[in-house]
Amino acid sequence: MFKKILLAVTPQIDTPTAPRAAFDLARKRGAELVLFHALPIGRDAWCSFDDTIPAQALNESAKVKIAEYYADDLKDIPKHSIRVACGPAHEEMLKVIHSEGVDLIVMGHHTQAVHRPDRMWGVVDTTIRKVCANVFAPVMVVTNEMTPGAEIKRMVMATDFSTPSDSALCYAIQLAAANDAHLDIFHVLDIGQTTPNPKYYMQSMDIFIDKALARMQKKYAVALTGISHAFHCWEGIPYIEILKQARWEQADLVIMAQYSGSEEPAKPAIGSTSIQVALSPGCPVIIVNYRARVCM
Description:
The chain contains nine helices and ten strands.
């Protein structure tokens, strides 16, 4: 299912969770791997900006260092290449994604301090959001180290019944079928993080849960024919409950839509449910941008 994978690489990490996941996927799937790094105007750990040099020379210098850094990991991945560009990370990455025909993007997050005054912890999830909003290819965010050679055998798909969620579910069904995996479809009744949602306190919560389960059965059952699956629903704060569900089910993967029906595209990335889930400790998360998919 994955023929060309783009890995966003950086030396500013304690544990290379995303690179290891991308290397493992490329080996198992026989996929082509593209390593990408953007050099911002300022300072970067793989390059010195003390002297003015041509951009091409700067890029080539960074390519050599990246090749040396990942030499042991790349020696058994024959189809690989390294792309380096100067400029904003998401803009340069999008150029490579579109020109290379990438069908999976793998990203992680910084866990070491980056000594640049214009960078902060939130910049990585901002890059993820900007990339997701402009590509059809799904984005896998890996924060915890994966077991080498691990198979995808159980997945959690979070839905809010919106059109983007339906599109993400179609992708999840394809992935489950390709891996012979079990799919747990999960809906959270959002009780409100700061202001309680009054409608959930006017009747028994079981009434709302039963309605949501019946809606999932009616809407998704036909599309899930032949796929091992189960429906789940309860109340809570969406990103917290999704993380709990993935942990309880011992999921290998969580799949979510980039935007839900209740989130605006311009909403700050740090407040997005998908970003909060993706950057929290747990199994890898695939964020799927909306694309017209027919499966139900």
